[in-house]
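Page 42, continued from yesterday. The earlier attempt failed because a stray header line got pasted into the input along with the sequence. Redoing it now with the clean sequence only.
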Amino acid sequence: MGRQFAVSTLSMPGIPVREAARTARAHGCTGLELRVHPDEEVHLGLSGAATDAVRLLLDGEGLAISCLAGYAKVAAPGDDRPVVDELRALIALAHRVGAPAIRVFPGGDGDARPRIAAVLGELRDAGVRLLVETHDSHPTGAAALSLVAGFGEPDLAAVLWDAVHPWRAGEEPAVTKEVLGPYLGYFQVKDVASRETPTPVPPGEGAVPLVECGELLRSWSGWVSLEWEKAWYPALAPVDGPLRAAAAWYARYLTPPG
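This time it went through. Structure tokens are written below.
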């Protein structure tokens, strides 16, 4: 697939998909990362007709869906059944809307293996990839990899590298890239003021070593998406400025030759 550039709708909380798509296109994106959340147009339980409408809308805008950003916590302590049910719902939604992947979180120190194993066949049948984000209880590439490497199927279960969390946890980008190897399935570009101050800033204005990330990713193919955390930091500026900065970073390091 080469490399492609997207923006997450976390960056535009509550904005209709149609408007988010137009913002994405205006900044040169070829895809949209859809946050799956009760507060958003795309959510678990969305009717079949509404799901089809989203797919047709994005097809009409010439945009692919890079990922469905779900909130299942595959390593959360507790019963397996609710987690597996949520994963199945995400996979079904991804299949219907035409998304190639679902993003999930670690969420704790429980055993993720039986939960992921329970849906591997459904992932395979649907043509959907499960991506565990470097986040919360497993913020580094090495930690997130431990949840998926045992299956030996990076096309089905891989890792989403969030630029901030591994670095804040002390894992430098070169180590993250090397550790993940074929399990690097997706990259979220973002920046923060410092390791101690996780307030988002436009890419290139903070302390995250995005120059190094860009150089490292030249040899990799996959989706790169801006995640501007306006849903969690409502006082942040609208996404347009950060998206321009992210697009410029992407163009400098990752635009395919041609």
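Notes: The two ends are 15 Å apart (CA to CA).
Reminder to self: strip header lines before submitting.
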